[in-house]
Automatic annotation (TrEMBL):
Taxonomic source organism: Bugula neritina (Brown bryozoan)
Protein family according to the UniProt entry: Belongs to the phosducin family.
Record-level GO BP terms: protein folding
Name of the molecule in the record: PDCL3
CC per GO annotation: cytoplasm
Domain Phosducin: 14-156
Stored CDD domains: Phd_like_VIAF
Residue intervals passing through the bilayer: none
Pfam families per the UniProt record, alphabetical: Phosducin
Residue ranges the record marks as coiled coil: none
InterPro entries: Phosducin-like_chap/apop_reg, Phosducin_thioredoxin-like_dom, Thioredoxin-like_sf
Length: 189
């Protein structure tokens, strides 16, 4: 090949390379925009009863929504709100909302707060009602991450429950004795 033929070949390769790079750039831009659309949350949104349907039930296809129903002046509710702010920043593809019980659910019993609901595609997937189910004032951000991860609402990398289950020997003995006693009574009759 002479110099002119090599130059022509080089120009052809450049055009092909440019086309390939342009195609790759468009594909990558599309992926980034889809990811940005999915990662559009990142904070905790305050809602009211009027917002509930749009923000929770109609949040979008395959969008996980974590709802915290709380009351003002309850320290555990304040703690859970703080934890949710941290989790919302770490998991921007999950929508986090909160609403005062008196505003979102009229006559909601105060003994039931804090309450956490998890929705996906408008369906309730899981709920934790009251301080006992949320570990009271001992609740840690890791506990909530684990709970949400077990349902699938956040893509956690936690492999082990941070709150190891404690085997209560006294309770299990009471249960065994009660169950065994009932069985003996039933068999003896």
């Amino acid at each position: 090949m002479n110099k002119d033929e090599l130059d022509d070949l080089e120009d052809e390769i450049d055009d092909e390379d440019e086309k390939m790079f342009e195609m790759y750039r468009r594909q990558r831009m599309k992926e980034m925009m889809e990811q940005q659309k999915k990662s559009s949350f990142g904070s905790v949104l305050e809602i009211s009863k009027a917002d509930w349907v749009d923000q929770v039930n109609k949040a979008g296809e395959n969008v996980w929504v974590i709802v915290h129903v709380y009351s003002e002046g309850i320290p555990l509710c304040k703690l859970v709100n703080q934890h949710l702010v941290q989790l919302a920043a770490r998991f921007p593809t999950t929508k986090f909302v909160k609403g005062r019980a008196s505003v979102c659910i009229p006559n909601y019993p105060e003994k039931n707060v804090p309450t956490l609901f998890i929705y996906r595609n408008g369906d309730l997937k899981k709920q934790w009602v009251g301080p006992h189910e949320i570990f009271g004032m001992n609740c840690k951000v890791e506990d909530l991450e684990w709970m949400f991860g077990q349902v699938g609402a956040v893509p956690t990398e936690m492999e082990e429950n941070p709150r190891k289950q404690i085997h209560d020997v006294m309770q299990s003995n009471i249960r065994s004795t009660t169950t065994g006693g009932m069985m003996t009574k039933m068999i003896g009759e």
